Amino acid sequence: MNSYLLGLYEKSMPATLTWREKLEAAKAAGFDYVEMSIDETDAKLARLDMTENKLEEIRSAVKSTGIPLGSICLSGHRRFPFGATKEEDRKRSLEIMEKAIILAAKLGIRTIQLAGYDVYYEEGSEKTRADFIEGLKKAVLLAAKYGVQMGFETMETPFMDTTEKAMEYVRLVDSPYLGVYPDSGNITNAKLIYGGTVAEDLQTGKGHLIAMHLKETVPGKYREIPFGTGHVDFQQVAEAAFNLGVRRFVGEFWYKEGTDWAQIQKDACKFLRGYLDKAAATC
After folding, report:
1. What do you get for the CA distance between the two ends of the chain, in Å?
2. Residue range 220-230: average pLDDT?
3. How many domains does the chain have?
4. CATH number, domain with residue 140
5. Rounded Cα–Cα distance for residues 122 and 85 (Å)
């Protein structure tokens, strides 16, 4: 049995698949679980109001396939961030947060990845940062109530593009329910700007890293780069993560229409496990 779990990002497969089909695809490709996406689209945000019948359908799919939903990637806050300038958008951000936490609790999901933005479509300021912190403190109490852990993703914008920056807010809030869920590709790009290594940046989150996104990037580009064609040093990432106690990883990549997505999933699993298995054997 592996000493770690490797999850699959839901957006790596066609949106038209049923949950059972998605879980079966993840299993066939060799992954251990699926990370649900709740992004800023109306269709994904509607998941926060799933009926009990829909929830039972998902539970049934998990039971029959043996592949759980292990985490939620909550990027819906890009549209409705904690630091939004409009009060109604800030209220919506907390509503999204509470519903996501309750959904996770109902489905047995333990981890929610948070987008590290104070605002995304607006200009940031001291006010947006202050509102972000206020919303975050409320969110942590909701997470504590339901026993669901949250972790900041290191993003592609200067507000929170490194583990070190994310840790500023983790320490400020000071709760066991908030940590860092770093993204290997985003940090790799950030280190080109700030200097140092990915391993050094991850070290700043020691004791607070709850999981990791394994994603490929190239300088200045943050998504849809095939594994092995970019500049992420996956061996360094894997070894640093293992040494810091990380044991949950998610392969983050995207479905492209017209591709053999099932084979791409299998290839990605093999690619990532090659580095993870080597790191597990030496750490």
Report:
1. 16
2. 94
3. 1
4. 3.20.20.150
5. 8
DSSP 8-class letter at 133: H
- CA gap 55, 107 in Å, rounded: 7
Name the residue with tokens 């649900």. 36
Q: Is the pTM of this model over 0.90?
A: yes
Confidence bin at 182 (pLDDT 50/70/90): very high
Cβ burial of 123 (10 Å; 0-12, 13-18, 19+) is exposed
Structural domain of residue 96, as residue ranges? 5-282
Q: What does each C-alpha distance from 206 to 10, 36, 159, 243 come to in angstroms?
A: 28, 26, 20, 9
Distance of alpha carbon 282 from alpha carbon 45, whole angstroms:
41
Q: What are 129-162's pLDDT values in tens digits?
A: 999 999 999 999 999 999 999 999 999 999 999 9
Confirm if 185 and 232 have CB atoms less than 8 A apart: yes
Question: Which H or E element spans position 37?
Answer: strand 33-38
Torsion of the alpha carbons at 29, 223, 246 and 163, rounded to the nearest 10: -170
Neighbours of 224 (CB within 10 A): 11
Nearest CA to 154 out of 164, 144, 143 is that of: 164
106-81-241 Cα angle (round to 5): 65
